[in-house]
């Protein structure tokens, strides 16, 4: 009889596979849904951030005009030379100008003083957008009389009201209104340098602008219809560049703002991606358990004649299906979460964010979710092909080789490739992408190792004398099919984020406070005119304040390095010199000795120049030398308010910048700058905040042009900035921890049947409900505690490394916050675990066995 | 009559813990189309292993299995699956219904796998034959053990196999239910002319077949035809 070979050529029969996948899922839907729920949060975070990013890009495009407030802005750190001034004054038809500088203001009613950014404005700026004020009319009213607009945080801080008076320099101004928002300003700028607007016409009378004062000059232009601002900007660029002026157009503002926010969203995307990866590991391990349960069914299907590929496809279809569902839900959730992001990030944003639904973001998120859940599910899924029909006769687990399929290595490879290409897409830089991928791998490996290590230690250290309940609770972490590790990793990672945040915050605050402890300086007075120098010093002494440093400061610009100008060097792409070295204004001092925060590491310190013809050897800070790519003996040409001074680098100094005192990139020897326009800085130490306040009041009254920064102000500012960053980080950590908790819920429900059997067995053996409850609670407590401990341990290590190598500060972690995090995470785990096991715990065994099958 | 199953020098050894365990050695027999044969023997003698090899669920260590003139040893696992789908029915000691499918869907799977159309009525007919048409929408967990076994019987017959292997088909059932299942087995065998190979501990059941192969320690101890006198005699002892 002929063998009918055609029977071997049956098609895959996709419609039937779809039908089987659908049928098979019917009794598992809620469980399958649980598997994907762990990716929902990750997708939600991604979609939220993507949408936010897209909207932000549109918003920046739409609002770039109001961001700049004008068509063109030219800015300069010095009075433009007359010829240049002429050109500046000839541009456009509608112009405004602004001079801004740091100064003290004095609230007359309650005698408060604070360093602010004074902006003296003439003209109708802003031409796009507005100075938003309360009352609204104030933004026009203040322009023509002796009135000021005061930043809203300042108003709050000093409890000031519209109509109160402030003094700036020699002049007092009535507060016309509260300044809520100005073009390009964010919540952050108003923390660091709160603005006070006054009319330019009164600037002279304040007496604050004298030779050597550091004033920023800005010119705002609005062009008539038909004038191409970009073209004009291109045309004047060479001239402005040569004279060291900057300019901004709407296009360049768009670009710059867009770039800095692209960085922010990129960072957030990567954090969200990590949350997603965690979720995916959760999915993979849940599917692993699921597939184990399916071995018998698959073996039967194989008996009935299904091909290995078909069996594989049935489950693949299921997983794509739930991956798609999970991603869609995640995308919907993300679109909602997006609405919260402006509140989280608002302080960093200079513009209004619209909250449109972004289909591009949703599409990306869903595609990402499907691909990644599929990739991770493939790990357990590839072994489906190896399930032999023999399993129907005897279920031996060694027959089902879930671990040793060579295809799994391929899948691992694909996953790593995927992470790599995703990060490459985000960062557009191969090296960074490789670092990120390596970092994620290493991070997970370290977390896993620490988690294992802790479990091992715990197992070793639980003595037999601990009651049975404790030992059983701990032993439960090792039950077959446990998901202990992934829980430790995901909850641990979230905990690590949060506690690292607290530690770093602590380190920074500590560093600043420590640097000013003992007899270290904690107050800096600057902008002291040469003729006020001795009087200010005397006033300090009268208040029993020590004169820790008195330093002259000369401002200058860098013209040439070894005979090459900034323009030449910028044009030369091979030059390894940072462009900013030419753009910035240098504040330089001169002295004949080193101070105790610096030491020479290369070359020779020469403190004085004796004759006008001698070479001037200067000393530069080592980090600045790196940016200059300079060697000892290189020639630097400085421009000191018009006078060109050639110098030679004589030495490199290592400088400890972590002090409340003056430090300098460039130090001149004595004998060169004595006659240059200059101002002085006085560094002192105040014993208390009260003394500081009293001294500042007295100082501002007598020397209104002198500005003061004290430690309290620095700490308060730092605290506020850190608080804002912290909010962002906590927001992201919340996603990681929530993912962990969802994985926890899923794993509790997956192991429910097992738990029921255990609990029935224990009860048959005579355990009462409370004992079973205790065992379960202890199990979750161990889980939460180990996870939190893993995270905290890691963050201690990371923070220590940061403190040691990055901030170069001592690390004395305060235990309060991490302990609180530890307690919260442990209790949350126990609560969620118990909540989900309650049906197992409170019902009678028989009842459960009947209903749960 | 044509030979449906031909076993030549069949041997099976398992390797476990570095040691070789010969479960079956030098088995030879062949079965004619339409016959009803039972395989008996003490526990652990290798009956299930033999059945698995005959049905192509496993590969022999030596010798050959020829089913419907197809040498199973030459085929890949997927090809053997196709052979099973075409020619083989299997009834398991522990039913092995797919828990996520209803009774009806369980019966339909082999037909659907072949890509046949309009199978619902065929499947319902089969369920009707085993007396479960009214329970067709129930899941296995909602059926009793005997009912599940009857569904698995219907499933085994659904693809109209040329040969049906049954491993202890009544092992888990009470006397009354197992009578029902037995009757169904023999009726369907007679109506469709399907070859029947039964593994059983139940000598009464074995006696109802035409031939009994006795396995002992992995060898065939005896292979004899049952005559109808003996059959009658046995039943009334
Ligand atoms: N994968 C395996 N590895 C090692 N030994 C095995 C394996 N599978 C079966 N055996 C052994 O082969 C022998 C035959 O097993 P088989 O299941 O065929 O016996 P049986 O005759 O069906 O017994 P029973 O009547 O109890 O069902 C047994 O001793 C069994 O332990
Ligand atoms: Mg057996």
Automatic annotation (TrEMBL), chain A:
Chief place where the protein resides: membrane
Residue ranges occupied by any MacB-like periplasmic core domain in the UniProt entry: 33-237
Transmembrane parts of this sequence: 32-53, 267-291, 312-337, 357-384, 409-427, 433-457, 485-504, 727-751, 772-803, 815-835
Record keywords: Cell membrane, Membrane, Transmembrane, Transmembrane helix
Location of this chain's protein in the cell: Cell membrane
GO CC term (a single one): plasma membrane
Membrane topology: Multi-pass membrane protein
Residues of the ABC3 transporter permease C-terminal domain: 270-389, 731-845
Pfam families (alphabetical): FtsX (PF02687), MacB_PCD (PF12704)
InterPro entries (alphabetical): ABC3_permease_C, MacB_PCD, Membrane_comp_ABC_pdt
Source organism, top-level taxon: Bacteria
PANTHER family: INNER MEMBRANE PROTEIN (PTHR30287:SF1), MEMBRANE COMPONENT OF PREDICTED ABC SUPERFAMILY METABOLITE UPTAKE TRANSPORTER (PTHR30287)
Name of the protein in its database record: Permease
UniProt organism field: Adhaeribacter aerolatus
Lineage, uppermost ranks: Bacteria, Pseudomonadati, Bacteroidota, Cytophagia, Cytophagales
UniProtKB/TrEMBL annotation, chain B:
Family the UniProt entry places it in: Belongs to the ABC transporter superfamily. Macrolide exporter (TC 3.A.1.122) family.
PROSITE patterns documented for this protein: ABC_TRANSPORTER_1, ABC_TRANSPORTER_2
InterPro entries: AAA+_ATPase, ABC_transporter-like_ATP-bd, ABC_transporter-like_CS, ABC_transpr_LolD-like, MacB-like_ATP-bd, P-loop_NTPase
The ABC transporter domain, residue ranges: 5-235
GO CC annotations, alphabetized: membrane protein complex; plasma membrane
SUPFAM superfamilies xrefs: P-loop containing nucleoside triphosphate hydrolases
Protein name: ABC transporter ATP-binding protein
Superkingdom field: Bacteria
Key words of the record: ATP-binding, Nucleotide-binding, Transport
GO molecular function: ATP binding; ATP hydrolysis activity; transmembrane transporter activity
CDD domains associated with the record: ABC_MJ0796_LolCDE_FtsE (cd03255)
Keyword Cytoplasm in record: no
